[in-house]
Amino acid sequence: MHLPGGLRENPFISMNETLESIVPESLRPIVHKAAAGERIAIEEAVCLYDEAPLSLLGMLATKIKERKSGKKVYYNRNFHIEPTNICVFRCKFCSYRRPAGADDAWDHSMDEVVRMAEARAGSGVTEVHIVGGVHPEHDLYYYAEMIRRIKTALPQATVKAFSAVELDYMIAKAGLSVEEGLALLKSCGMETLPGGGAEIFDEEIRRQVCGEKSTSEQWLRIHGTAHRLGIPTNATMLYGHIETPLHRIDHLDRLRRLQDETGGFNAFIPLKYRSRNNALSEIGEASIVEDLRTLALSRIFLDNFPHIKAYWPMYGKTTTQLALAFGADDIDGTIDDTTKIYSMAGAEDRKPIMNTAEMRALIESAGYLPTERDSFYREIPCSEAAPSPC
């Protein structure tokens, strides 16, 4: 797929503009700091978001991205297991949650979950991503056994499992400390955590959109504890609902401060609120321009995060390709039509699946070098990537 004019390099640079020539004078000190690799403050980030032309944000984010990962853009071979969509919480933005007994609720048995894993034996998959609803009856020991059995079925694949909200509930239900609970899951084969459940950290906004679930402090504590136990994690932010740009930047700042302490985050993933079939539907969705501004600012502000991911099942393939010119250096994985979280909320790809050849073509046509990785951003040489073509 080729975008208009092709994205063989950043389209704004190809217009023979220099970074200096498009920087408003009031923003030059901030832009020079960021371009030089220096940290910008919250107030400076607000100025950039409010005043910088989109082209400037794209150029600056690209400069920072290429300083960190060059021309590489990462992808992996993964699939999701979503054990249940039954959930004790009722978040206003959620289109996925169902109460027990609903016609479209599911709660896969342990054997069904294991069969999902066994069905991908020999496929070359390197990651199993497990998230779902917070089921009222399943505790930590149930999910520890699930991980152990999945790891037995797919010993070569990394198990990335459970949002901090799921972990908070299941560990408390078992009567253990966060450290004890995470250590138990790690001993059963959980190697990394996804970044879900962060939503937005501002306490008042969080109270309005998901006040029943774990607090911001609890989310950060769980991820910080995981890092100290040698479990790397990702981080997310749900944007485009009732929050403001200042709330987004505050969210990024809290993540940046925790990363300063632990260094345990692999990637940040800004997640676009999708409006179908939930209690906030009337507010609509952020525009593509706002998506790109948020991505770029994330790359500029999070100077201590190695990677920014444009999650393609959420954005769709076209916007994901655009995102590579606004700071993203990862597009996630093959998925294999195994997640319903965004399709139930109205995402463009109702059956999210891309093979490795399609992912490589998407990245190459944007002017970047497709690079297969594992869950820890270790590169997988093409000669070792099988059975799909490189």
Topology (SSEs and partners):
Elements: H1 28-35, H2 42-51, H3 54-69, E1 72-76, E2 78-81, H4 110-118, E3 127-130, H5 140-153, E4 158-161, H6 164-173, H7 178-188, E5 190-192, H8 203-210, H9 216-228, E6 233-239, H10 245-262, E7 265-272, H11 288-301, E8 307-308, H12 312-315, H13 317-323, E9 330-333, H14 356-364, E10 369-372
Parallel strand pairs: 1-9, 1-10, 2-3, 3-4, 4-5, 6-7, 7-8
Helix pairs in contact: 2-10, 2-11, 3-11, 4-5, 5-7, 6-7, 6-9, 9-10
The helix content is: 25-40%
Average pLDDT:
89
Which structural category do the helix and sheet elements fall into?
A: alpha/beta
> Number of folding domains?
1
As residue ranges, the low-confidence spans are 1-16, 340-347
Can you write the helix and strand succession as a string?
Answer: HHHEEHEHEHHEHHEHEHEHHEHE
CATH topology title: TIM Barrel
| Tally of helical runs | 14
Order of strands, main sheet, comes to: 2-3-4-5
Radius of gyration: 20 Å
